[in-house]
Amino acid sequence: MSLPPLVAPAAELTVDEIRRYSRHLIIPDVGVDGQKRLKNAKVLCVGAGGLGSPALMYLAAAGVGTLGIVDFDTVDESNLQRQIIHGQSDIGRPKAESAAASVREINPYVNVVIHNTALDRDNVKEIFSQYDLIVDGTDNFATRYMVNDAAVLLGKPYVWGSIYRFDGQASVFWAEHGPCYRCLYPEPPPPGMVPSCAEGGVLGVLCASIGSIQVTEAIKLITGIGEPLVGGLTVYDALEMTYRKIKVRKDPACALCGENPTVTDLLEDYEDFCGAVSPEAEEAAVDSTITARELKDWQDSGKSIFLVDVREPAEYEIVRIPGATLIPKGDILSGEALARLPQDRQIVLHCKSGVRSAEALAAVKAAGFKDAVHVQGGVLSWIKQIDPSLPAY
Amino acid sequence: MITVRYFAGARAAAGTDHDAAPAGFSLDQLAVELTSRRGERLGTVLKAASFLVDGVACHDRSEALPDGVTVDVLPPFAGG
């Protein structure tokens, strides 16, 4: 299914622009007309991170006239393995500003709009309404459902991409012509079941593989060339080096874009919708959470505790709290490792940031270890509060 | 016959990219069957995965699947 161009052409290209974009202009399908459409286009990148980096850089180079960048975060050293729009000297700088500087360096003819803010239910529609097309490069389910809902409610197309370790997925969601994100994933996964890139890692260059698909689709939509990835999902496997295209159809029972929608406006709270931790974990953590400082005091006072690190072996290799025994969360939830927990010492669980340890805590308490606790903020809090010489990741 | 195609983490957990099951199975029955065939690791992935039946998300997991359909198993991830 081909679609008409999303954007009308700008009045003209300057002599400088004709020189710059000559390799586009001589492709018959793009031509002067297509380049004028790119010049007139307003594209918003949600997130200037892994996917946002290549997306913004190629959209800028391609001559998209107005590029919006929304990101509330600052550049961290652990971003630089994949977020190539930022460099060493940008560490600590707001990502939106750092990305804007790179965009201007790549192409001074781009009008860059910086939204140095967190996208939320109060600003998302107002920000989206200023653009023709959205590129989604966010890193969590809550924001992804919000981006989808806002785009559908405003009738905007958006190019979606997602990455994890060696796997990537990309699609174009546009409810007027095909399915939306909720047609593909009607419900967010149960909390704690799906690791993020911060927990599970991501091959840096995967961002380029998926980000470039997103830019390709954005250019096709703007200029009206080719077959857009509406109603299709591209699944990329870097280890197998395969791209598989799956057909995704509009779901008649979709809560948002189906025949009888039950979601007719943005949700009140997307964090709540996606559940940062499960209700069981939340309940288990009440009155059973200690700080990194309290853990240190317990250790120093010789209190009889058994400290369990519930992260994965690769994380344990990177950094660990002294005295911790590694028992990955999965082995605790399956019940396999419960026999390794001593009955005569107080169990203290920790992970990277305190989410997985809360899940494990619920299982450990249910198994009868009533006085078990977990460490708020995990090993990251330990590094910050107790031993800043250790590497954060 | 139902054709099952595994993607991303589901493929890794199953150790194969496809499976077959008899027609008439519901998605719930399919999940039990595939877990016993391929192991608990796949079972965990199936709990969070989206199932597309001939391209459409399936809401009723107890409904019998007709002969000849293809079920795509897609584990969600949100990294960016």
Automatic annotation (TrEMBL), chain A:
<keyword id="KW-0548">Nucleotidyltransferase</keyword>
<dbReference type="Pfam" id="PF00899">
    <property type="entry name" value="ThiF"/>
</dbReference>
<protein>
    <submittedName>
        <fullName>Adenylyltransferase/sulfurtransferase MoeZ</fullName>
    </submittedName>
</protein>
<dbReference type="InterPro" id="IPR045886">
    <property type="entry name" value="ThiF/MoeB/HesA"/>
</dbReference>
<keyword id="KW-0808">Transferase</keyword>
<dbReference type="InterPro" id="IPR035985">
    <property type="entry name" value="Ubiquitin-activating_enz"/>
</dbReference>
<dbReference type="InterPro" id="IPR001763">
    <property type="entry name" value="Rhodanese-like_dom"/>
</dbReference>
<dbReference type="InterPro" id="IPR036873">
    <property type="entry name" value="Rhodanese-like_dom_sf"/>
</dbReference>
<feature type="domain" description="Rhodanese">
    <location>
        <begin position="301"/>
        <end position="391"/>
    </location>
</feature>
<dbReference type="Pfam" id="PF00581">
    <property type="entry name" value="Rhodanese"/>
</dbReference>
<dbReference type="InterPro" id="IPR000594">
    <property type="entry name" value="ThiF_NAD_FAD-bd"/>
</dbReference>
<dbReference type="GO" id="GO:0016779">
    <property type="term" value="F:nucleotidyltransferase activity"/>
</dbReference>
From TrEMBL, chain B:
<protein>
    <submittedName>
        <fullName>Molybdenum cofactor biosynthesis protein D2 / thiamineS</fullName>
    </submittedName>
</protein>
<dbReference type="InterPro" id="IPR016155">
    <property type="entry name" value="Mopterin_synth/thiamin_S_b"/>
</dbReference>
<dbReference type="InterPro" id="IPR012675">
    <property type="entry name" value="Beta-grasp_dom_sf"/>
</dbReference>
<dbReference type="Pfam" id="PF02597">
    <property type="entry name" value="ThiS"/>
</dbReference>
<dbReference type="InterPro" id="IPR003749">
    <property type="entry name" value="ThiS/MoaD-like"/>
</dbReference>
